[in-house]
Amino acid sequence: MAMMKRIGMTATALVLLAAGASAQMMHGHGHGQMHGADGTGHDEMTMPGLRGLDATPEESAELAVMFRNFHLIERTVENLPNGIRTVTFSKDPEVMEVLVSHAVGMIDRVGQKRDPQIFIQSPTLDIFFARGEGILSEIDITDEGLVVIQTSDDPELVEALHIHAAEVSDMAARGMQAVHEMMMQRAAN
């Protein structure tokens, strides 16, 4: 069953595996704070960096499931001239259920402009929460997996969709290592 909605009302799809684990610097909500300065230190067991100022415990738990099981996630991305087409899949039923729940939940948040402010989330997400009404999203669950197509007429949103899709793919391929490297690179800039 495919669903499509213009983000800004309520939405139903965006694969935002978020950017999640411990970080060298905190994004947005604590510019300049060093890693762990707010009690979200490096701990891959409890993953405190996956918490957020407006994230529910369930949302943080979903992120933890995805990061702990990144090796069970397969993902492909096709950059379109006006957006992206992603396919995300896991043979593990629990991981697959979490992928779908997370995608639907995050796109709904974008539609409500309710940034969960995950402590270590990628700044690429900022534009989605600020201007998400400019993204048209389709989500479908097929034999391929979770298929998300997102398009926009706004070139800046298209660029952000491309960048974030690549970030998510890197996290799906390398887990926390990808997050740590992204955060250290941002801290160095």
Q: β content, as a range?
A: 15-25%
Q: Give me the Rg, rounded.
A: 15 Å
Provide the number of structural domains.
1
Element-by-element helix/strand order: EHEEHHEEHH
Low-pLDDT stretches are: 1-43
Helix content: 25-40%
Distance between the termini: 43 Å
**Computed structural class:** alpha+beta
Compute the number of strand runs: 5
Q: What is the overall pLDDT average?
A: 76
Account of the 3D structure:
The chain is α+β, with helices and mostly antiparallel strands and 189 residues long. The protein has one domain (3-188). The chain has helices spanning 57-68, 93-112, 126-131, 155-174, 176-188; strands at residues 3-6, 73-80, 83-90, 135-141, 146-152. Strands 1-4-5-3-2 form a five-stranded antiparallel beta sheet, covered by helices on one side. A hairpin with a 4-residue loop joins strand 4 (135-141) and strand 5 (146-152). Helix 1 (57-68) crosses helix 2 (93-112) and helix 4 crosses helix 5. The model is unreliable at 1-43 (pLDDT under 50). This is DUF302 domain-containing protein.
